[in-house]
Every structure is written in C-alpha cells, then in structure tokens.
Amino acid sequence: MERRVCVKCDGILDRGTFGGVEVDLCTSCGGLWLDKGEIERLGTLSASELEALRRMLIPVPGQRPVASDLPTACVACTGKLKEVVLGPIHVDFCMQCQGLWLDRGELDAGLEAAEGKTDVSSLLKLAAATAAAG
Ligand SMILES: [Zn+2]
Ligand SMILES: [Zn+2]
Q: Is the full-model pTM beyond 0.90?
C-alpha cells in the first residue's frame, strides 16, 4: 500500500477506521483526507465514533497547517487540489479523484455542510468547476 503524505505539513498520513469508514489522517497537524463519498459516510457515524475520530485529529503541539497559495498535489492521485467553498469553510478538493482535504477543526463544519446533501462530491465538483470558470 502506498504511503500518503499530508498536503499541509509533509507528515505521513495514518489510516484509521471509524464506524467502518477508512480515512487518512495526519496526526502531526490534525488534517483529514477523505476519498470520494467518505464525507457522506462519516455523516452516518454515531457520536462516539465521531468523537474517536476527533481525538485522532488533535495535532502535536507546535505543528500547524501551513497555508500555501501554490496548487497542492493531491494525496491520492496525480491531480491538483483546488480550494472550494463547502458551507462556512474552504476545503481542498481534487477534481480528478474527488477526494477532499479538511484542515484541523474543519471536520464538524464540513459534516454540517454535508448534512442533508446526498451527493456532496457532485456539489464540490460543481463548485470547483465554477471557481475554475470564474
Ligand atoms: Zn499534516
Ligand atoms: Zn486526486
């Protein structure tokens, strides 16, 4: 299995399974990578399962996500991540594999924004396409 590298801090992503959903997370900066469809699946987790995930996303003291204006290479494929708006937050989204990066603290806002929307990936794809056109 290939090792996935954090898009924000060069840490190696750990793999964790929460309520049957396998996600990649960075224990250095608290970022979270979700493959296509995983944000919808996380929305179905119980409170205790989500709490277990949140506990994994508490970063090492001193490490914080590094903001970058450069296009970031996708964690999972050869695509580039594009910043798109998901509710109150900006997330990094890959048009190619439709994966999604959440910075530390963005999980709850992301889940909230995804709530009620059956297909967040399509929504993000549309948002990314709009951003590219404008
Ligand atoms: Zn990181
Ligand atoms: Zn990708």
A: no
